[in-house]
Please model this.
Amino acid sequence: MPSQVAVLRTRPETVVEDYGRLMRLVKYDQILSRDTDLILKLNLSWTKYFPACSSQPWQVDGILKTLVDDGYERRRLLPVENKTVVTNPDEGCRANKWRPVLQRHGVGFTALPDVEWIVYPFRSPLLKLNRIFPEGIQIPKLYPGKNVLHLPTVKCVHPDTEILLSDGRLIGAESLVKEWQVREPVQWLPDGDAVSEGETSVVSLRPDGLRGDHATHFWRTPVTDGLVCAIRTRTGRQVTTSTAHPFLTPEGWKRATDIRVGDRIAVARRIRIQGRSQPLPAVPALGHDSLDLEQLEFEEQPRLTVHAQRSIVRDYLDGETVAEIARRLHVGRKIVLRLLDRCGVTLRGPWVWARVPGETSTDFWRWMGYFVAEGWARENHGSLAINVANNDPEIRSDYMALCKSLFGVLPRENAGTLRFNASNLRSLFAHLGFRPPTNAATKHVPDVLFKCPDEEISGFLSGYFDGDGTVGPDGVHATTKSPRLASQIQMLLARLGVLAFVGVSRCKATNRPWTKTQDYAKISIYGQDVVTFARWVGFRCARKRARLQELVRRRANGRQPSHWDTVPVPPALFRFVREGLKITHRSSERQSAVSNIEWKHTEPTRPVVQYFVDLFERHDTSGRFRDEIAYMRYLAQDDIAWDRVSDKAEKAAEVPYLYDLSVRDSRSFIGNGIVLHNTHGHSVTTGAIKNSFGGLLKEARHYAHEFMHDVLVDLMYMQREIHPAALAVMDGTVMGDGAGPRTMVPREGNLILASADQVAIDAIAARIMGFDPLAIPYLRMCHERGLGVADPRDIEIVGDEDAARVSMGFKTSRSLVIWGDQLIRRGPLRPLKRLLLHSPLVVWAPFASNVYHDLLWYPTVGRARIRAFRATPWGALFEKY
Model:
């Protein structure tokens, strides 16, 4: 039987009652006996309120109300929380407003530092904790024999590198490797490598360009030197690898540690994928499409002819309202309603019932391009409001025509915005990864588009650039608040052979007054790529179209030479071939080009190199220089470009492992748009399992941070041994995104989750945040050991099933304190770890953390975030407690 996770949408007005519905969905009373004491493990009692970091007061309220209403004795309910080197449970209980909730329900609060702790002889096969605490693992004496109910929130940390599969999809390197290491046997090698065999088709660099090839082995490799290398290119691509990882340079493969700023490495310019139109989900419908108007029988009436009756039904099916029809025909609404009822026409009610095409198309993606560029979706009195704002008459006309042809709806104008409401489109937006309310910072390209053909990608880019794009004297540009969106647009352009830059631009939002100047991601297309862009994409906006045509004309007249997209042909190789074939400067008919190449005055453009390659091949009748000429053709191929390294930094590794693929023939694949040999990533989410970290381990548990994934597996073993039953009820009403644990950005999730399987609930929470659960080490290890289910395919969702399929698209980073902590635990300061963290000098760590969080971050950043949070409905609810 699959593990079960309950997921419900909620809102501030109903959240307390919704927790009751949630817990009863998973039949919690069959899991937690009323005859056994129940520990309620609260979550992370920081001494200041940080939204999304701690158990929310409405979470505590809803759970206690449900337990008391369902007959659980108050004396058997034991809310607890522990302290750390930087927190105090009593102050946290006050700051997070737990105390008034507990008092109202007649339940006390237990601070775990005040109870007796005992050494418990665990018999389970623990991975790390026995070695971290060789003197014995202490746990609260009150824990063994009692059930436990965890009250975590949803928050995360997750960096990754994306591998390009041959069907167009992008997948995290760690996710790909872990998928095979879960499915297939793992072979452990003496150097610590773990490898599994399998087969996945990836995009690879072959002699004839970027083509599909087969990855056959999937590797996890320990980081032995504690360092990784972060490289960023001039076009904005960036990747983090081991210091020994080889990059493709004009001189061949070169290790990352030997790469210098200014060096050239290969990146993807033209990715050739045979995509296919993808099916779209069916949405709830009224059945109007199945009505055959010609088969309906009408009878003559005194006030309505048969022709008028047929016209009424047709007009209603075409979207006209009952009131509009009655007013136009000067008849009563009841007459129209009776006619529709007699003909078996289901009424729409107050909302638009849109239809959805069966599969994607160029028109569908152009509509979606407009939405991603200029639109937003939000809940509106029980329906889904879909809005697009653009002042260009051609774009507005095209958008309205697309709405009519694709969805059967006609948007209405409201204060310069085209808007329609269609509650039945929620499942479509969830399928595409959009969770209302959408905003500029969270916009992204739907994953399914990457599997579509080039014509559909062109349609999306056409709509997007018509909305967000501009044409300047130097090229085509677009700015977005979403760095993820900019990176995805860059990859989509590469599908069409357009190489784009992604940089940073300081500007203001134009859709509201008094906005501050902020960093925006800027997508730019220059030179010959503008011509390719015009051929594939173009503009419907007349003003932009005219400017683009002028740019293309200037390129055709040779007035805009490319200053960067050149081919780094080795001068000595070029001279060796030319002189060996007895070709002089004059006989080449490109005297200045020969001089520029051989004396390195400039680097040649792609057409120049292709000219000489063709010339050399015609003269090399004996094949003497076949390999050298082939190498120059390889350098000048259309599928790759030679980007420059703009920044390189060696830094402490955040992760214990890197990940690699063995590709059958070419030994390369594409990661983050760069030609790679291996990539890495790591992921950590905090949820139900992590919540037990603060209950089962004493204050010195910070020693375990270095081995967090192994320790979380140990905690699952420990809970299974000492608790008869466990349940997790997770609050996702406000989620934490970005650098943690205290400095995250609160984002409204409006979700709550519950499960008796802590691994399963953490897996579903990870997927909602936008991560692959099996790529998260502790979840994957728990899954492999039978401690729970981490594969979403084996998890049954009850409640709001579609809510569990959305992706929040979370991004992550490290706070200053976490960065410093990892320098000591895994980085260059590791030799000082025992002195700084395992001696009386450890007092510096909580002091530094509190100074940073409470005195620096909170007054400058945190207070503004919390002030903004208080203006939200959830912030208003927190104030009421």
Notes: The two ends are 40 Å apart (CA to CA). The longest strand covers residues 209-222. The longest helix spans residues 844-870. The chain has 30 helices and 35 strands.
